Amino acid sequence: MYFDSPLQISNLALTAMGTRMFVYYQDRVPMGSPVLLVSNHRSFMDPPLLMAAIKRPIRFACHHYMGQVPVMRDMVNFLGAFPLEKPEHRQQSFFQQATELLQSRQVVGVFPEGTPPMVKFTKPNTMGDFQRGFAHLAMRAPVENLAVLPVAIASQEEVNNSAIPLKVLSFFDPSEPLFDQGGWHPMVIYRRTSVLIGRPCWITPHSREQYQGKQAKKVVADLIGYCQEEISTLLSQGCY
Predict the structure, then answer these.
(1) Could you tell me the domains of the chain?
(2) Between 46-54 and 4-16, two packed helices, what is the crossing angle to 10 degrees?
(3) Listed GO molecular functions (predicted)?
(4) Is the overall model pTM greater than 0.90, yes or no?
């Protein structure tokens, strides 16, 4: 029931909100293999949208504050997400939790753009720079047959509202500098959106062998570049 419930509630939530979702290239989703899913991120609706699209439960790594704010914390727990720790323990905790989930052949979801696109309104066809953590995880995690799956969320019609003052979120997570400013946290609600699934990148023993010394930096950069390019190309197809 634990693994089915997040998937069921994702479909129910999209139906209740009247969101029309179109999924492309669903045959690219690895079934039965551990998957590190990488996606662009603009809305609180992204996790249930992605789960409904790939038809597999996804354990999302989410921002620290989401595990602190009432109501939001309950939603995060129900969907099976794991909030990141405070900055001083964040990397170690992320690697440990994500590795354990991947070793049990689950899907781990990451939004490598980080917090900025969630606290500042961005256009549907734009994407920020990716942080490197997911690429290091893919190379370091002792997981066989690991697929890194880039996925693009391309919104064609949406409603934009203001959810909560950023200063309020600073009360729950003073470690996030983006909350120490005026303005409101945007709330993007999709009315019509496409989810376009990219070509998976399989992490092979050979690629892990290359992840050593001076070559490690290039291996990480190549994986990040692949995911960014794949998602950017899919966004250009889906945002019309």
Answers:
(1) 4-238 (3.40.1130.10)
(2) 110
(3) 1-acylglycerol-3-phosphate O-acyltransferase activity
(4) no
